[in-house]
Write a structure and sequence with these properties.
The structure is a homodimer. Chain A is built from 4 helices and 4 strands. Chain A has helices at about 15-30, 50-60, 75-90, 110-120; strands spanning about 1-10, 35-40, 65-70, 95-100. In chain A, helix 1 links the parallel strand 1 (about 1-10) and strand 2. In chain A, helix 2 (about 50-60) crosses helix 3 (about 75-90). The termini of chain A are far apart. The interface between A and B is large, with 55 and 55 residues.
Chain lengths: ~130, ~130
């Protein structure tokens, strides 16, 4: 059983955390998704934190957990904090394979998403 | 002439700001992009700030500027700070049409990007 854990920064504004949980719901419903579980976790300020998120996936039966940083740039959180949490989780759950995927901003496809998102906002197409 | 201004938060870490500028370069090279200019600007901590970024696009000949918040959640920056900057720019440049596009996290396509980004990280496909 395979789990995807989408890790966002976490916000004091609960609506922002809810956006991440709704994104996970949308990922679950995507065609071609190969994960049995898709869950949200947070680096700080919201629940579950990363260790708890990984632990829950494993408790629900995942033998593989892919951790994906839902971040746009490779700052300290992406380059140090999240890898450190993943490393701790690997030691705690040696029976599971815990992988660290690239952060969202590293995806080439983001450029295409922006082209599609903004194209309709010019000319007579303004949606405001 | 149409310009796209990709507005990121801005970081003290210059490499993060450079990532946004490189993304703009990639957007320029996407098929089907309908903008003559694609530039980066920042809400704070990096140059150019939003007013200067919009002003530059117009100085280079843009009659339309689409401002796209490069953010993942609809916090205060997306819901208040960037719209306020756009409103100020509209008063300053009444001859230009300045549009505010949705923020990146609002794009449905982000779920598909994550499916594609993470799919290869399971099984024997691990890239670590």
């Amino acid at each position: 059983m395979k789990a995807l854990l989408v890790v966002a920064h976490g916000s004091r504004r609960e609506a922002s955390n809810e956006e991440v949980r709704r994104l996970c719901e949308r990922i679950r419903n995507e065609d071609g998704v190969e994960f049995d579980l898709v869950e949200a976790a947070f680096l700080e300020l919201a629940q579950p934190l990363i260790p708890e998120g990984i632990g829950r996936c494993i408790a629900e039966g995942a033998s593989e957990v892919v951790v994906m940083p839902y971040f746009l740039s490779a700052g300290r959180h992406v380059s140090e904090d999240i890898p450190a949490e993943v490393e701790k989780a690997r030691r705690l759950h040696p029976q599971a394979a815990i992988h660290l995927a690239p952060y969202l901003g590293a995806a080439d496809a983001v450029a295409k998403v922006i082209v599609n998102l903004t194209g309709g906002w010019t000319d007579g197409n303004t949606h405001e």
